[in-house]
Design a protein that fits this description.
Layout (H helix, E strand, L loop, with lengths): L5 E8 L3 H12 L5 E3 L13 E2 L9 E2 H14 L3 E3 L3 E5 L5 E5 L3 E10 L3 E3 L5 H5 L5 E2 L2 H4 L7 E5 L3 H11 L4 E5 L9 H9 L3 E4 L2 E8 L3 E8 L5 E4 L3 E4 L3 E3 L30 E3 L11 H22 L1
Parallel strand pairs: 1-2, 1-8, 2-5, 8-19, 10-17, 11-12, 11-17, 12-13
Antiparallel strand pairs: 3-4, 6-7, 7-8, 9-18, 14-15, 15-16
Length: 312
């Protein structure tokens, strides 16, 4: 451990749209922010091929390119962007102690959490192979590319029903694949799915392999009761088995819901620890969009700046 820990006025952990936006605002407010990029610099957008719903990019933009733009803008105003992963935190007193890469301790006057969330995947090799080429974990991000086509959604909760309903408005046909013979989604969501004429339930099946050439053209399913296999012809395959917020290091230190999303005060990014703010998908389980994450990153930086002003 370093002899005298570095003191940081505004520490941001995580580097997706929330983290970089927080860095832009914090840098312009002269908070000299330091941002640690985490395991996946750029966040979930780095595994998104085309982003067409972010304002300001009329032709659309590749996810990784967009995150490079965000980073350059933050650095232009003086944000200190670093490689590194926050592995432990002590929020019992200010300045907060944050351990980076299990060895370096830094002291933060304010902390902005922008660690995001990770989509849960089925764990198939073919899922990785076709990620961005027909496989997606976000219907609102990618559904537009499958207008008039046939797609499959896998899952049985509210997320799966919501994705299937959304896609049913764009696609000719939507298969909803579930391993059991009843959904665990709320009754209202189930009703919406059963009412849609172009959503077909595929009960008691699990995806075994996603197939295709350059892009997805089908999925091999296995019947969970008989073991029989069958192929569905689809152009898109949406995994909707939920997201996991990257908040493990805050367990027992900050309030979170049963799924691990950080709880903030109403109309605020302030957690119950004064000076600690949570933004982006680490605290938003409802919208989970790049533009909403950026909005909460902006809020967190403004709130951090006000917090520090009040301390003076």
């Amino acid at each position: 451990m370093s002899e005298t820990p570095e003191k940081i006025k505004c520490l941001i952990i995580g580097s997706g749209p929330a983290g970089y936006t927080a860095a832009i605002y914090a840098a312009r407010a002269d908070l000299q922010p330091v941002i640690y990029q985490g395991l996946q610099p750029g966040g979930q957008l780095t595994i998104t091929t085309d982003v067409e719903n972010y304002p300001g990019y009329p032709e659309g933009v590749k996810g990784p390119e967009m995150m490079v733009d965000f980073q350059k803008q933050a650095e232009r105003f003086g944000a200190d962007v670093r490689w590194g992963l926050a592995t432990d935190v002590d929020l019992s007193e200010r300045p907060f102690k944050v351990t980076i890469d299990e060895k370096n301790v830094v002291l933060a006057e304010t902390l902005i959490i922008a660690t995001g969330a990770s989509a849960k995947w089925l764990g198939l090799e073919s899922e990785k192979k076709y990620n961005g080429f027909g496989v997606s974990a976000c219907a609102t991000c990618d559904g537009f590319f499958y207008k008039g086509q046939t797609v499959a959604v896998v899952g049985g909760g509210d997320t799966a029903c919501e994705e299937a309903s959304y896609l049913s408005k764009l696609c000719e046909k939507v298969y909803l694949i579930h391993r059991r013979d009843e959904l665990r989604a709320s009754k209202a969501m189930q009703k919406r799915v059963f009412k849609a004429p172009n959503i077909e339930m595929v009960w008691n099946h699990v995806p075994k392999e996603i197939v295709g050439d350059q892009n997805v053209n089908g999925v091999i399913l296995e019947n969970t009761k008989t073991g029989e296999e069958k192929k569905l012809d689809v152009e898109g395959f949406f995994v909707a088995i939920g997201h996991k917020p990257n908040t493990d290091i805050f367990k027992g230190k900050l309030k979170m819901d049963e799924n691990g999303y950080l709880i903030t005060k109403p109309d605020s990014t302030q957690t119950e620890v004064p000076g600690v703010f949570a933004s982006g998908d680490a605290q938003d389980h409802v919208f989970r969009q790049a533009v909403t994450a950026a909005g909460t990153g902006c809020m967190a930086a403004i709130e951090a700046e006000r917090f520090l002003s009040d301390q003076e």
